[in-house]
Every structure is written in C-alpha cells, then in structure tokens.
Design a protein that fits this description.
Layout: E1 3-8, H1 15-28, E2 34-39, H2 45-49, H3 57-66, H4 77-88, E3 90-92, E4 95-99, H5 110-123, E5 129-134, H6 139-142, E6 149-156, H7 160-175, E7 180-190, E8 205-211, H8 214-221, H9 234-246
Parallel strand pairs: 1-5, 1-6, 2-4, 2-5, 6-7, 7-8
Antiparallel strand pairs: 3-4
Helix pairs in contact: 3-4
Length: 249
Amino acid sequence: MAYLIAVAGKGGTGKTTVSALLVRLLVEADKGLVLAIDADPNSNLGLALGIKTEKSISSILERISSQPEAIPKGITKDSFIQYEIQMAIAEKEGFDLLTMGAPEGPGCYCYVNNVLRQAISKLVNDYDFVVVDNEAGLEHFSRRTTRKADTLLVVSDPTVVGLRSAQRIKDLVEELKIPVKNKILLLNRVKGGVDKLNINQTGLDYVGFLPWDEALLKISENGQSLFELSNNSQIISKLRELGDRIWSN
C-alpha cells in the first residue's frame, strides 16, 4: 500500500511547485515507485515535472461520452475506462504521472472526481509513494476527491490570509471525517522570518518554511522542469531537511 501525500492550499501558494519538488526528492532518495497525480484542473504538474501528458481522465471520459462505440464489445464501460486510465499514465525515469484534466463541456466535476477516486484506490497498490497535487481551495475535499491520506500537506504563503485558508482546509477535513494520519503546515516563499505570524492558529503541525528562491522563480517563468533546479539551491536543501517529517509514518 502506497504512502499517500495530499498537497493542498489556496491558489498562488506554490502548491504545484512543492508537489513537483516532493516527487523529485522521493525519486532522488530512491524511496521506491512514485506516482504523481495532478488533481488540479489547471494541470500544471506535468510541466513542473518536465513530462508531457497526451491524455487525461477528463479527455478519456469526453471521448467515451461522445463516441460510445469506442468501447469494445464484451467489455464494460467501467473496465474500459480503467484500461484507458492505465494507458494514460505518463512514464518518466523514477516516477509516473496521472492527470485529471478539466472537462471540456459544461457541468460539474462530480463524475471526473468519482473516476479519479476509483483510479487512486486501484493504483495505490502498485506504488510506494503517491503525491497528489489537489485543486486549489476546498472544493476537492468537499467533493471527497481525497478520501484519505497518510499526510495532508497544507502549503501557505507567509500571510494572515494564507494561514486562515490553511486553517479552513484543516477544519473541513476534520468536519468531513477524512482519515488523515498527519496534518502538517508548510510555509512557502518566505522572505525573512515568520516570527510575527500566529502559526499555531491553524491547528496544523508546523514543519517549517521554504525560502524565496530566485533560481526557482526563473525556472518556473521559463517553463522548465524543476528537475533542472540545482541540488545546491536553497529550496531543495531546505525541503530535503524537512522530508522525513513530511513522509513520516
């Protein structure tokens, strides 16, 4: 059974960047088979990891919906969807990537999220670690895209608003009774210290902060993979120090 890390946070906190860096560190630490799941409709995790995705869960469902004849005779719709999802997993040295995508037509994400939940429940047995980059905000928890996690990693910027958002995520997870072993807070893009912030208000276990990193910003602006970030960068060094607390049993 895989160790599942669910990364959450409000928009603009660097949630996807942190997810990609976690995947990189798990791969470099040779922690076993790693699956990255881009559960954010904006679908930027693949770009951050330097891997191009040809298919997403949403595109698969759109195709089957518009072309039901594509389902081979003798195969149920659910079985065909699961097969297509397996084929949609993008592979790169050290890790795989599954992308949820955004529905092309109008309507809610209910069906897409339901399929994603089923896919996760089946795939967790094939990997040692799963890192899920969740949709910004609270919607993915309300829709129960994340049903359980070993670690809920809430990423916040060093602001009062960011910490309030982190607290709301934690409160909603508890209200929905989503089983989570570790609920932790990581501050990102910190310039200077965090002494003036009331970190304890979130009710999350604060593990530390990641510093503002100009090299990381430049790579992101150029659309480069975060695997190209130097091993000597401040943010890589700091996240490596925090690693055991993030994926601790």
